[in-house]
Design brief:
- The protein is α+β, with helices and mostly antiparallel strands.
- It folds into two domains: 137 residues, no CATH class; 52 residues.
- It has a five-stranded antiparallel beta sheet with strand order 4-3-2-1-5, with no helix packed on it.
Length: 198
Amino acid sequence: METSQFRIQDLLSFGYLYLLLLGVIRDSMYFGLMGVNIILYSSVTDILFSPLAYLVDEPYLTLVFVLGIYFAVIQPQFHEKHKGKSWYKRIFDEEKREERFSEPSLISAELVFVTMLITFMLLGTGLGRGLGMSKKMRDQECKHNDRVEFVDGETEEVAIIGQNSLYLFYVMKDQTQVSISPINGVVKRIQANAIELE
């Protein structure tokens, strides 16, 4: 039991570090394509919580992550715990499952597959969205649906392209560059999709 708990803790720790690294690379690609070095505008907290933000923000990533945990960790442990029981033998072909789970290379292959799938999905969305947004900025085709109200009372209709705990990243009308405003002390209110609602 201690070995399986150790394995789960190892997988979760490595999984978190893996998602952390992928999140930094993804954000760097996305914002970098628009001329922003996101690392300069990110706090340590933003970076540490980025894996959780991606799991919440991208439902498909959460599904793949859960399936990966299921196939690589939960399913083999479930088999090991219940393999001698009569109800288990009625539901599953115990011999085939025993053969499958006794070969760690198969489980490792599933884990590698899920890892590569998450890598391609995260980096692909970062690259694709970054290229799409940078093209819209160059062609001035951004939808300025969002409204930002500043502390001094000025209000701007903008296209918000990102936000973290410290800064708001947006494109103003007739601009081809990203504007960056600190949230604390500068931005009073952010209304996403405010223009469409009216």
